[in-house]
Amino acid sequence: MRNLTDRERRTIIDELLTRLKGGKLVHGVLTEVARKFSCDRSSVSRLWTQYQSTCTNGISEGERRSRIKTNSGRKQIDRDEVAQKLSQVPAEQRLVVRRTAVAAGLTRYLVSAMLKEGRLHRRSTRIKPALTTENKHKRVEHVLSYIDDATHNFEPMENVIHIDEKWFNQDKNTRTYMLLEGELPPQRDRKSNNFIPKTMFLAAVARPRYDFQRKCRWSGKIGIWALTEEYVAQRSSKYRPRAEWPRQQWRDPIFVQQDNAKPHVSPFDPDILAAGLEGGWSIRLIFQPPNSPDLNALDLGLFASLQSI
Questions:
Q1: What is the pLDDT of residues 80-89, one digit of tens each?
Q2: In angstroms, how far is the first alpha carbon of the chain from the final one?
Q3: By Cβ atoms counted within 10 A, which residue in 224, 229, 266, 301 is the most buried?
Q4: 81 phi, psi to nearest 5 deg
Q5: What are the residue boundaries of the structural domains of the chain, listed by start?
């Protein structure tokens, strides 16, 4: 016994409606209509009964569509129940789909479906420094030092420079190339990952601002230098324009913030204090709070953006 299409069902109902006499079907009409449309009489009878019941329930034209589409096949598992099972699994065991499915007693398909439907989300976390009570106090003191005593607002910090060192590898283990059809990726070989050359760079940035004397915007990028060789730096070139501090602020005290690495020189070193006063400048070194890389703009994202290129 074949299933009727929606179009055939509408046609059969229209045929039965034309054969009504006194609002009822006479004996033998269902058999004749079933024979005409090459289907079983019981199918026509069920279709007519469904049509009449839906008309009685308030549907003006009656229900003529098949209910097989909504009632056939395997029923979808309740996603709320799946979410309840997943919530009982510790987050440490919900790292990958396979491990999550085993821990929750679900199939990998269900876990993947929850991700695709947006009921389950992937989130990345990074290990953060463990702060002691003293570290927290230092952070608060550092932040409070940038509050203007007169207005109780944060200072613009236009006289603060952030400096930091960073190792950059000249190559990385995996590289992705955009190749045309028929092209082959370049062959790269190293003895091991330990033999990839790397260079330490020192970078210095400040807050961008508008230089009213030069009538241009200063990006705040002071420079980045490799700590591997000594040479006379170019004052300006087409590859690296000369970076100059805004003229209207060159007499203001400038604070160069560095981290607390042991090799770093003390801010109170006599040679450093003397060098900071040369040429009429007033440059001073300060330490950022310990275990607080998030208080340095270079650690917050600049180095990561450079390394992603």
A1: 999 999 999 9
A2: 65
A3: 224
A4: -65, -40
A5: 6-71, 79-116, 133-307
